[in-house]
Design a protein that fits this description.
heterodimer, A: alpha/beta, Four Helix Bundle (Hemerythrin (Met), subunit A), Rossmann fold, 434 Repressor (Amino-terminal Domain), 3 domains, eight-stranded mixed beta sheet, 21 helices, 8 strands, B: alpha/beta, 2 domains, elongated
Chain lengths: 437, 307
């Protein structure tokens, strides 16, 4: 996500830093490049115009040009303006005391409402709520069936009643939720064009009948300039409360994120970043600005690690390492912990520094799978005492895991290296969990 | 022909309102083109998702002609710009009508694209088109990943009276494709349309899966798929180019279906795709009804834009 855009900013910033002194001409040249990058990233034309004007105005101020690091100053201005564009602070979901609270998902066809409904349900379930998914798309073929399947996959009840008026279905879902102690309704409405008055009217009726706490506009992160028009009409009709940007795991440069916020003034609340139901991220404007500019997002990385790594297990593992009893079983467990953080490429993209180096280092998720398979093909004894793995055992393990003996050898060598490293670390304590791959 | 043309115009009416009325307004408000006018044209093109590079290219051409002194009134600018746009679209489009070049049986069409662009809906409409022309169509539900994708295609199959080959959710899409080819042969179907799962072009494992489907198709019937249609949402911004490029590199693309042109999105990315990748747009989607899939014709497209 945002990789291309951050690479380009990287280049612009390098040039900016390269100047000992900045003239107005340098700045306006840089601004032209920034304009180009933003337009190529699908940021709305008018939003770009305002953005450039406002950065330029601040950047040609006397303080900046006279400071010791003028380039750095300009970069900071761009960063701050970008963060400002995306909203000042993170805006959480709001719930009232009303039971059930109601979240309505709206948007164009194909923006990803149904998948997002599943993700949102997963998200609030983790926060201890009990959602009820409501199938309010009675138009698209098999849409209701799709939501039912989603519900089954994430263990969440789905309320559906085909062939009825949508408002009626939702009202009934409300009473159903009360009876069955569901505290949140997530309403999956049909995708519709903003120019379709009848369909927009339906949303309006839903809103006035249900009084939802949240109306979230689900927008495809790959949308171009028209994102602004669509969002504007939806917010004029419904005054929605927030935005969810989907498909942000592609290489779309996410300009829609900047424009929708700028034009509607409504906060972006979540990003959809994958096909699995837990692949939804809370949107943090400042962190996202850093990520776009290639400054990394260490805060999110640490949070992600905290979320997915079992603290107790990690502590145990560290103890074992220190006591020199680090076995292949432990190594395997460590791999599982890392895997839980999501695709390695995503994890790496949060690190600050040169994105290009990381990009070229095509992370091979398959290597992880292979390592797992090899360890899985060992007996428990072999995992505890790797030194007993002789030639014939190696052959068997390779055969069992569908790899070659060389692959088994490589893993065993790596493991021995790790053990040696750990021995050395024991002397100089304090370091934890090497990412031993 | 005329009827088709009217329908296209209806579908594109909003596109027209945005792009062309805007240009018309600009051109009428000043009797000469100056830099301001060109700036405004640039804004309009960019707002239509034409993209900065292509926009600059188009404006450069307009400017050259202007310098040459060929233009002296707004109507000529209008015509000239129209000609430039049509030429851009024409230069890469082969004159072949895919609906007339069916010389194998079954003629296998694979439909691919990122998530949510409207693959399944387009396939339903495409099957309807072929059925109307008395071709016997078989559908293959090779999207075994997305929840209820198969059901969705089944409903379309019933609507347009086409048989469908399917498997259980999570099944191997390549196996479905293979079975479908054999079934198409056995049942003497003229056309087989394969619905693949939506996939982001950046996911290398999913792109490999797609390559595998195509390999298996070729095995089941050498030369298949005969057509590979990439579905692009008209709302897509500059990423559309990356999508088209990556899918092209992975499996090759013989044509594009540009969907959702009935909204306010302009689909301007088509200009960049044609200019850079030379892949023709073959169909446009302009609604949710079975007959809302139209042949794309560059001449008509541009002509309709300027009505």
């Amino acid at each position: 996500m945002f990789q291309e855009i951050s690479e380009k900013f990287d280049g612009i910033f390098k040039r900016l830093r390269g100047h000992g002194k900045l003239s107005e001409k340098n700045i306006s040249e840089s601004m032209r490049e920034v304009r180009r990058v933003l337009l190529e990233a699908d940021v709305n034309y008018k939003v770009v115009k305002q953005f450039i004007a406002s950065v330029e105005k601040k950047a040609v101020g006397q303080d900046v040009l006279k400071s010791i690091t003028p380039g750095q100053q300009v970069i900071k201005i761009i960063h701050d303006e970008l963060a400002g564009l995306m909203g000042e602070k993170q805006e959480p979901l709001t719930f009232s005391n009303r039971i059930p609270g109601t979240i309505m998902l709206v948007g164009l066809q194909g923006s990803g409402k149904t998948t997002t409904a599943g993700k949102l349900a997963t998200f609030i379930q983790q926060k201890g709520r009990k959602p009820l998914l409501v199938a309010a798309d009675v138009y698209r073929p098999a849409a209701v069936e799709q939501l039912r399947i989603v519900g089954r996959e994430i263990d969440t009840m789905v309320y559906s009643d085909e062939g009825k008026d949508v408002v009626k279905i939702c009202k009934e879902a409300e009473s159903f939720a009360k009876e069955h102690l569901h505290d949140t309704l997530i309403i999956d409405t049909a995708g519709r064009l903003h120019v379709d008055e009848t369909m927009m009217d339906e949303l309006d009726r839903l809103k006035s009948e249900l009084h939802p706490e949240e109306i979230l506009f689900v927008a495809d992160g790959m949308t171009g300039q028209d994102a602004v028009n669509t969002a504007k009409v939806f917010t004029e009709a419904l005054d929605f409360t927030g935005v969810i940007l989907t498909k942000m795991d592609g290489d779309a440069r996410g300009g829609a994120a900047l424009s929708v916020r700028a034009v509607t003034g409504k906060p972006i609340k979540f990003l959809g970043v994958g096909e699995k139901y837990n692949q939804i991220e809370v949107f943090h404007p400042a962190r996202m600005a850093s990520r776009i500019l290639g400054m990394g997002d260490v805060v999110s990385l640490v949070e992600k690690a905290q979320q997915s790594i079992d603290q107790e297990k990690a502590a145990k593992l560290e103890q074992k390492m220190m006591r020199d009893r680090f076995t292949l079983t432990d190594f395997y467990e460590q791999l599982q912990q890392i895997k839980k953080m999501g695709p390695l490429q995503d994890v790496l993209s949060m690190l600050p520094g040169n994105q290009k180096a990381l990009k070229n280092m095509q992370v091979d998720e398959n290597a992880l799978v292979q390592t797992e398979a090899i360890i899985n093909s060992m007996t428990i004894e072999e995992r505890m005492k790797p030194h007993i793995i002789n030639g014939s055992r190696r052959k068997r393990i390779a055969y069992g895991s569908g790899t070659r003996v060389q692959d088994v050898n490589r893993l065993l060598n790596q493991f021995t290296m790790m053990q040696k490293m750990l021995k050395r670390m024991k002397k100089g304590r304090g370091m934890s969990m090497p990412f031993g791959l | 022909m005329l009827k088709k043309f009217t329908k296209l115009q209806q579908g594109l009416s909003k596109t027209r309102t945005g792009l062309v009325k805007g240009i018309g307004r600009i051109l009428k408000s000043s009797s000469r083109i100056d830099e301001n006018t060109l700036d405004e044209i640039e804004e309009l093109l960019i707002l239509s998702d034409v993209g900065l590079d292509t926009t600059e290219h188009l404006i450069e051409r307009l400017r050259e002609k202007y310098k040459d002194g060929i233009i002296d009134n707004e109507e000529e600018v209008f015509n000239l710009f129209k000609a430039i746009l049509a030429e851009e679209l024409n230069s890469s489009v082969s004159a072949n009508d895919p609906e007339n070049v069916i010389n194998t049986k079954p003629h296998v069409i694979s439909v691919i694209g990122v998530n949510g662009t409207g693959k399944t809906t387009s396939i339903g409409k495409l099957a309807g088109r072929y059925q109307q022309k008395n071709y016997n169509v078989l559908l293959a539900a090779a999207d075994t990943f997305r929840a209820a994708a198969t059901e969705q295609l089944s409903i379309w199959g019933e609507r347009v009276r086409s048989d469908i080959i399917k498997t259980s959710p999570g099944g191997d899409p390549a196996a479905v494709a293979f079975d479908a080819v054999n079934a198409a042969k056995a049942r003497h179907k003229d056309i087989l349309i394969i619905d693949t799962a939506g996939r982001l072009h950046t996911k290398s494992n999913l792109m490999q899966e797609l390559q595998k489907i195509h390999r298996v198709l070729d095995k089941a019937m050498p030369g298949a798929p005969h057509e590979i249609l990439l579905v692009i949402d008209a709302n897509t911004g500059q990423n559309g180019l990356a999508q088209a490029r990556t899918f092209m590199q992975a499996v090759g693309v013989t044509g594009i279906i540009l969907t959702k042109l009935d909204g306010t999105a302009k689909g301007g990315i088509v200009f960049s795709i044609q200019k850079q990748l030379k892949v023709p747009v073959k169909y446009i989607g302009i609604g949710e009804k079975p007959d809302d899939l139209q042949r794309f014709d560059p001449g008509e497209f541009v002509e309709a834009l300027f009505q």
